[in-house]
Structures are given as C-alpha cells and as structure tokens.
Please model this.
Amino acid sequence: MDISKSPRTPPGDVIELELGFATQNKPQFDELTREINDKSSPRYHHWLTPEEMHEKFGESQAQFNEVEQWLTAQGFTITDTAYAQNEDYIRFKGTVAAVEKTFKVCLYSPVYDRYMTNDDPAIPPQFVGVIGTVTGFVGLLPH
Model:
C-alpha cells in the first residue's frame, strides 16, 4: 500500500506517542536470557526482579531525564512516565507538525487508530542506543 497517496494529517492535530528505551549491555542481556532458558545452566529459571533488570540493562536516570527534557524542548507535553521498571517509557503528546519536525517523518491519515508514515523516525545522535522505540504511528526505528 502506497500511503503517500493518502491524505496528509492536518498539522494542528494532536497525537499521543510513547517512547521506549533500548536495552543496554545487550550482549550480557542475551547471555543471561540464554542461561535462564538453558536447563543445564546453574542460572536456569533464576529470574531477575524488574529492579535488577533495570539496574543491569536499563538506561540511567540521567539518560531518562535528558530524553524527557529533549521532548519537552521540542514542544511536547509529557503525559506519563515509568522509570526503573522492566519496560521504561515516556508517554507524550503534541501536534502533528511537532512530530513531523522532531522525528523527520510525514504523517498520513490514521488507519486503525495509527498514523502512517513512510519514514522511520529520526533520533538525535546523542540518543541512538538510548531510545529504542517510538510508537503511536506505524514506523519503527531502524535496528
């Protein structure tokens, strides 16, 4: 489906998005996951608490705060946050114009309550490897 033929979303429309954080220390995370699932491993089924997971594989408080401040500086309103959990996030809302400018995407009319884009959202260099996902429109961060 060529969404570029769909109508553009009005720039003044307000949409809600959620930003998720990337897993830190990915090689160690992958190894731990392998060991937890390996019946011959002494770590088999020795799960970590959400707090332990975050301490070992989550972003720092400073990184979280920097991302939150960056979103606010781009004109977004923070609506909810979760830090030091298994799945940290920042939920925010803003105009289509702000989303398009900040993430360098073009948004088209919503399909199934999602805004469509042909482009992957752009992430500033200082947050590559810190920001894992931006959801609320169809378009995923490149891996």
Remarks:
- Residues 74 and 102 are 7 Å apart (CA to CA).
- Confidence is low (pLDDT under 50) at residues 138-143.
